Amino acid sequence: MYRLYTHNDLDGVGCGIIAKIAFGKDVEVRYNSVMGLDHQIEKLFENEKNLKDDFLIITDLSVNDENLIRLDDLEKSGGKVRLIDHHKTALHFNDYSWGRVKVQYDDGRLTAATSLLYEYLLEHKLIKSSLALDEFVELVRQYDTWEWDQNENIKAKNLNDLFFMVSIEEFEEKMTERIINSDHFEFDDFEQKLLEMEEEKIERYVRRKKREIVQTFIGEFCAGIVHAESYHSELGNELGKDFPHLDYIAILNLGGKKISFRTIHDHVDVSAVAGKFGGGGHAKASGCSMGKDAYKLFVQDIFPLDPMRQDAFRNKYNNKSSMQGSLYENKKGDKFFIFAAGENDWILEMNGKPIREPYQNFQQAENFIKRKYQAWLVHDDIYVEFLKRFYIKTKN
Ligand SMILES: [Mn+2]
């Protein structure tokens, strides 16, 4: 018999679905949280005396050192073990004959556990490929690696939304049956309608959270901090894009005592940020439990701070990246004016005086005043008044 221990997110459950398609009733699938796996593996070794007769596969998760030794002993004594994963924190499992960890394909695309397991089963002729199966695996891969965002592959995002709307069991059963019985992988009309409603709900949620985000420096990084129980990926992505001056977004779930870290930037590795608090993950998405230190830094210390002020929107005149100038203000009432002297020559004035060297582009100048002064883009009326009173006067 096959035994699959896998993660309880879309990528992990994707592995379960593929295993069900490949092995049918001959596989037992267990879904685990990151924290829960080691205990389950320990229990398995305690309770099952004939593990040698089984084929044990672990996907999308890795095990601690004690379980690593258990697995290695099992394989060495004639059992069958595979650990198939795509997290770079699991690369050391490749030192073992049963480890299959790969982060990236040769062409630069990122791997997912689902795509790695699928390819493993294809290679060993344990599964038959089909168009619907190929499509499903690719949707999961694009979602898990976040490549869907760049490719604007909404279907991949919808698949994950659907995953969260139903139970794991229902999702597994429905998707397995659909892949087996269809030429292409598609949502049905009812799911389509549900997904539209969900999309609107997420939009409203993100908009609300934009008004609650707090900015602070933690260590060397400028972080945006927000409390939220759901939609962490959407929040991380939307808030990250809306506030490009922030190095990363920390999303706090106090009830679950967890923090998620997300970044859209290449200069930040949030798996290292989470690692400082005993967590881990990917460069662009990671998480940790909220221990005492993390609680103090991310909750207690920032509690007295006000949320970031929103940039004015629907302005006709005072817009970002405008060569004629964009006007910002901070809480103290300082005025910041960014304008272009040439195409790669942006000047930043604070209260009428140039500060620092010219910037190569608008974004660098905006990053500076947002990180240091938490300034926001002001409404048109203030902008027009400013131009009348200061700008025209001083330039004359
Ligand atoms: Mn994964």
TrEMBL record:
InterPro entries: DHH_sf (IPR038763), NrnB_C (IPR058608), Nucleotide_metab_enz (IPR052968). Residues 325-395 form the Oligoribonuclease NrnB C-terminal domain. Pfam families: NrnB_C (PF26386). Gene3D superfamilies: 3.10.310.30. This is Oligoribonuclease NrnB C-terminal domain-containing protein. It comes from Cytobacillus firmus (Bacillus firmus). The lineage of its organism: Bacteria, Bacillati, Bacillota, Bacilli, Bacillales.
